[in-house]
Write a structure and sequence with these properties.
Structural class: alpha/beta
Radius of gyration: 18 Å
Shape: globular
Strand order of the largest sheet: 6-7-8-9-10-11
Order of helices and strands: EEEHEHEEHHEHEHEHEHEHH
Distance between the termini: 7 Å
Number of strands: 11
Low-confidence stretches: none
């Protein structure tokens, strides 16, 4: 079977993706972000349209299980805007789930079964149904088809992979082996990257099927080149955060990593993920920032061809799956 990218509306050829924002959230509710919930379909749809207008044809919605994801709404937004959306299954790092969250006691096998079903059968219309009802209704696209995930996600804490997070990553690996879906791993401030790759490799996940989200939070070109040499993809998504690191620092990091031969391992996203930073929710700078304000500077720094690889060529390769 030829490789495809699984979007919320259908499977498509990788070449049809176009320019990809590899990491955003149109819906997300987390105890770590009180008051910053993304839970309004109309506003999230308007923000998705702003992303599209800034020059993107596709995006990954990186919200995994249990954090307010809304697959049916993603499908409606994709259908109405034309923006291609890849949805996510998996489980985030431990801190995003309250102490009494029922998913905390799930075993590796139970998690893997959920992740595989989300990719192959379809995602629940409401994740809470898995804890409350004997039968789970599947999210439906406007044409009635089930909405399926196309990406697996796990997470690790700051220089720590907790037992909760290890269980998630082992389950993600099992689901990857069953589906061929790509894997995203949240790194807290870019730490434990090699350790995560070691864990996944021991479970049968090749580094070239993994994207390390927030790698740019540790702007160390030597570290990034070493990760790229293993085959891993580097998720750069820290733009518009001058309180922690300026865009100028991220440009310098990217130039250094590109010059050292890793230009085909970088993907770009915003990971804005907060209503206070979405224009449609009354905040700023919005999802258009990456395309409108950062990418022109990046093109000046590394050239159009390199940016094309980061937005088109590399995501098309990363996001494929073969069943």
């Amino acid at each position: 079977m030829p490789a495809v990218v699984r979007t919320v509306l259908s499977d498509i050829a990788p070449a049809l993706l176009g320019r990809v924002d590899y990491h955003e959230h149109l819906f997300q509710v987390s105890p770590l972000l009180p008051g910053d919930e993304l839970d309004d379909e109309k506003a999230s749809g308007e923000e998705a349209a702003l992303l599209q207008a800034s020059g993107f044809e596709a995006m990954v919605d990186a919200t995994p299980f249990g954090l307010g994801r809304d697959p049916a709404a993603l499908a409606r937004i994709s259908a109405s805007t034309g923006l291609r959306i890849v949805a996510t299954t998996g489980r985030h790092r431990e801190a995003h789930y309250g102490d009494d969250h029922p998913m905390r006691v799930w075993t590796t096998d139970r998690l893997a079964a959920l992740f595989i079903a989300d990719i192959t059968r379809g995602m629940p219309a409401d994740d809470a149904e898995l804890f409350e009802a004997p039968e789970v209704s599947l999210a439906a696209a406007p044409d009635g088809a089930a909405v399926r995930a196309g990406l697996l996600k796990g997470g690790a804490d700051y220089w720590r992979i907790s037992p909760f997070e290890r269980t998630t990553l082992v389950a993600v690996a099992e689901a990857h082996r069953a589906t061929g879906a790509p894997v995203m791993v949240h790194l807290e401030f870019g730490t434990a990257a090699h350790e995560v790759l070691d864990l996944l490799a021991a479970e049968g996940v090749s580094a070239d099927r993994v994207v390390l989200a927030h790698a740019d939070r540790d702007p160390d070109p030597g570290l990034h080149v070493s990760l790229a040499e293993r085959g891993a993809h580097l998720g750069y998504d820290g733009f518009a955060r001058p309180r922690t690191r300026s865009d100028a620092e991220l440009l310098a990091l990217t130039i250094a990593v590109v010059e050292r031969g890793a230009r085909d391992r970088i993907v770009l996203g915003g990971d804005v993920a907060r209503r206070t930073r979405y224009i449609a929710y009354g905040g700023m700078p919005g999802l258009g920032y990456l395309g409108e304000r950062y990418l022109p500077r990046l093109r000046d720094a590394v050239g159009d061809d390199v940016v094309h690889r980061m937005l088109v060529t590399t995501p098309a390769r990363l996001l494929t799956l073969s069943l």
